[in-house]
Design goal:
Number of helices: 9
Helix content: 55-70%
Number of strands: 8
């Protein structure tokens, strides 16, 4: 669109007529309305249709400008066909390339089993928070007796448990929270800000959600698990590694004191169901 606007403006450098003024006006109108159209499309259609409609919307004005600027209808038609063909072709090619690139980026930063962010993403985000000096709270969670689940039911059931736990995390997803799988059965949550009450409330809500989870197996068997958690609220001028170490230490305090607990400085217990023996 900006290119077409420059084309219409350049028409004034030569003998011009009212058509150049009209074409310029339409180009300005398109540039003015495009952000609103883009905002509306982002809420109503999927990504590909969003892009397709935006390109078509821009082409309509561009084609109108071409037919208004050029007096020769045959040349204008030829140029319009070339413009439409090359625009859609390049759009589809670039969309495909960008989709592949984005998928690669997602794979690099996403855990293959749970679709949560992975350990690399966790470390990168902590580093980013450190550079930006943004305060945060950290929750580290671990599935209790997960090795027992694998030994008793098999690793395929263990994978089912991990997937289901990750699925339950989605209930609590917000823009200020990110969920990660940082180890075999260990997860982490980064929360913006340093509100201890909110961090404890979130950890307790997750713990209760996991306790209510039942995974049905063959032969009327089922698996239920609990989680232990450790919370660290970043202190002023505290290095991120220290914050993580405190959260991890709090997690082990929970595990060493009966599991199915949440620890900050002291272990606090939510109402719980018995853990798998």
């Amino acid at each position: 669109t900006p290119v077409m606007f420059l084309v219409t403006i350049s028409r004034f450098l030569f003998p011009y007529n009212d058509a150049a003024i009209v074409a310029s006006g339409f180009s300005l109108l398109l540039m003015g309305t495009l952000p609103f159209v883009d905002s509306w499309l982002s809420k109503t259609v999927d990504e590909f249709r969003h892009l397709f409609v935006l390109i078509s919307y821009g082409l309509m004005t561009s084609l109108l400008a071409i037919f208004l600027i050029f007096d020769d209808f045959k040349k204008a038609t030829y140029l319009a066909i070339l413009l439409v063909g090359y625009t859609y072709l390049l759009t589809f090619i670039l969309y495909g390339l960008m989709s592949e690139f984005r998928n690669m980026v997602v794979l690099v930063h996403t855990d293959y089993l749970t679709n949560l962010y992975n350990k690399k993403s966790f470390e990168d985000d902590l580093e980013h928070l450190s550079k930006q000096n943004d305060p945060f709270s950290l929750i580290v969670l671990d599935i209790d007796f997960f090795k027992t689940v694998n030994d008793q039911f098999g690793h395929h059931v263990g994978d089912m448990v991990l997937k289901e736990v990750a699925k339950r995390f989605q209930v609590f997803t917000e823009y200020s929270r990110k969920f990660y799988r940082v180890g075999g059965e260990e997860f982490a949550i980064i929360m913006s800000g340093t509100n201890q009450e909110e961090a404890v409330e979130l950890a307790c809500s997750i713990q209760e959600e996991i306790e209510d989870m039942t995974i049905k197996l063959e032969n009327d068997q089922h698996v239920r698990v609990t989680i232990s958690a450790g919370i660290a609220i970043q202190e002023e001028n505290e290095h991120l590694k220290t914050t993580f170490y405190r959260a991890d230490s709090a997690l082990y305090h929970s595990k060493n004191n009966g599991r199915n607990k949440i620890s900050i400085a002291e272990a606090t217990e939510c109402q719980s169901l018995p853990s798998i023996p």
